Model the fold of this input.
Amino acid sequence: MAGIVHILNGPNLNLLGTRETDTYGSQTLADIEAACATRAGELGLSVEFHQTNDEGVLVDRLHAANGKAAAVILNAGAYTHTSIALHDAVRAIEVPVVEVHLSNVYAREDFRHRSMIAPVAAGSIVGFGARGYLLALQAIADMRA
Ligand code: DQA
Done:
């Protein structure tokens, strides 16, 4: 499998840069995409980057990654805490999924402490801001080495 990593971002992440910057930082999603493309290149990987506010589109993107992507990085936003459909989709596909959250969800409200993704993910990286995506790419490169 070629080293393509699909990076999927869920609801409200299109507002990064202006949204709750104390929690999520000042980088925009476009900044994160550019940083991921650079790091992926250094690691011998390439990235396809998507954002949607629609839960069903995330399910479709996970299905589409199967058999095409070497790995998926998934920040499902608030759907992380609610979506059995995303849990089932991650479970249904062969491709490893790395869960990423910018904020430390375990240091926030109780409703953010439960992840539907974590039990079916290859691993989770939370609380390191935008750097979390780069750490996920590093983990994927290491897993493939
Ligand atoms: C988030 C954490 C979620 O709880 C929240 O709903 C988000 C962003 C993060 O990256 O920290 O939208 O996934």
